[in-house]
Amino acid sequence: MENKEKALICPIEIAMDHINRKWVIQIIRDMFFGKKRFNEFKEGKPNLSNKVLSNCLKEMEENGLITRETNESIEYKLTDKGLALNKVLYELAMFTINTDINNRYYDEEDKKELKEVFKKTLL
């Protein structure tokens, strides 16, 4: 039998496969900011249907990003794997804030405040 080389897949592609689905990053961000119940994830997202959210949470659980705990109600929590995305989210936020040189999205005061919020929450 020949020794076949295993085709290497880019680790960035693998990571993106887990988080690139619609709503995943927003849900993970929300969990860092304290949201943990189904209806809390829908706040501020009028286009997020119950079915899509349910499927998204199920996929995230299958990918090991979150766990589902049932006590008096159902709560979702980030696993160690999900928590490890903190620096990724922080760097994405800083990329947007730091490259907004013409203040298209944020004025300077907002930038300063956002940097502190994300630093405190994600680092």
Characterization of the model:
- With 123 residues, this protein is mainly α.
- The protein has helices spanning 11-19, 24-32, 38-42, 50-62, 80-83, 86-98, 108-122, and strands at residues 66-70, 74-78.
- The protein contains 7 helices and 2 strands.
- A hairpin with a 3-residue loop joins strand 1 and strand 2.
- Helix 6 (86-98) runs antiparallel to helix 7.
- The longest helix has 15 residues, at 108-122.
The helical percent reads: 55-70%
The tally of strands reads 2
Question: What is the terminal-to-terminal distance?
Answer: 49 Å
Topology as a string of helices (H) and strands (E): HHHHEEHHH
How do you describe this structure in short?
Keywords: DNA-binding, Transcription, Transcription regulation. With 123 residues, the chain is mainly α. The chain contains seven helices and two strands, in the order H-H-H-H-E-E-H-H-H.
